[in-house]
Amino acid sequence: MNDEKQHILLIEDEINLARGISFNLEQEGFRVSHAESGEDALEKLSYYRFSLIILDIMLPGIDGFSVCSLIRKLDARVPILILSARAEEGDRITGLASGADDYLTKPFNLDEFLLRVGGMLRRSSWYRPEPVEEGYSFGDNEVFLLSYHARTAQGEIDLTDLEVKIGRGMGILFGS
Ligand code: CA
C-alpha cells in the first residue's frame, strides 16, 4: 500500500479562492501545489507527477483551455477538473474538447466540489492498475531488474547489485 498523500495541482490566479480551495483540500488529506498561471503550472508539471489537476480558465498569460491541451500532450490520463466563472455552454464544450474530464462553474458548492474531486480520483485509480514488471528472458531464466530477483530452473534467487548492473547492460545491448 502506498500511503503517500495524493498530490493535486491547483491552477488559479485568484489568491483568496486558491487559499480557500487549498485549505479545504488539505483538510481532506491531500497535498496541494498552487500555480498562479499556466506557465507556472507547466513548469511544476515538469518536476512533479500529480494525481489530479484543478484548472481555472481565465488566467494571466496562456488561457486555461490552452493549458488543458498542453497538459494532455504531456499526460493523457491525469484527471483535469476545470473551474470557470463563465457558465456558457460553449466554454463547457471547449473545456471538455481540450481534454478536461469535468467542469464546474464558479461560484460552486464546496461539498459538491470535494465530492467531484474524490470521484475523479477514484475513477482514475480504476484505470491505473499497479504496473506489472516485465522480466528479461534468457533460456529458462527470467530476470527482473527493478525488484532485483530472477526466476531460474533452480528457483527464485536474489540478485546482487553487480548482477543487476550487468543485466541492465545486457538489456541495453538487446535494445530493450
Ligand atoms: Ca481567474
Count the helices. How many? Answer: 6
Arrangement of strands in the largest sheet: 2-1-3-4-5
Number of domains: 2
Indicate the percent of residues in helices.
40-55%
Strand fraction: 15-25%
Global mean pLDDT: 86
User: What shape does the CA trace take?
Assistant: elongated
Oligomeric category = single chain
| Unreliable stretches | none
**Class computed from helices, strands and strand pairing:** alpha/beta
What is the strand tally?
A: 9
Brief description of this entry?
Helix content is 41%, strand content 22%. With 176 residues, it is of the alpha/beta class. The protein has a 5-stranded parallel beta sheet with strand order 2-1-3-4-5, sandwiched between helices. A 4-stranded antiparallel beta sheet has the order 6-7-8-9, with no helix packed on it.
Kindly describe this structure.
- The chain is an alpha/beta fold and 176 residues long.
- It folds into two domains: 7-127, Response regulator (Rossmann fold, 3-Layer(aba) Sandwich); 136-169, no CATH class.
- The protein is 41% helix and 22% strand.
- The protein has helices spanning 15-27, 38-47, 64-74, 89-97, 110-126, 161-173, and strands at residues 7-11, 31-35, 52-56, 80-84, 102-105, 136-138, 141-144, 149-152, 155-158.
- The strands form two sheets. Strands 2-1-3-4-5 form a five-stranded parallel beta sheet, sandwiched between helices. Strands 6-7-8-9 form a four-stranded antiparallel beta sheet, with no helix packed on it.
- A hairpin with a 2-residue loop joins strand 8 and strand 9.
- Helix 2 packs parallel to helix 3 (64-74).
- The longest helix has 17 residues, at 110-126.
- The radius of gyration is 21 Å and the shape is elongated.
- 24% of the residues are buried.
- The mean pLDDT is 86.
- Calcium ion (CA) is lined by residues 13-14, 56, 58-59.
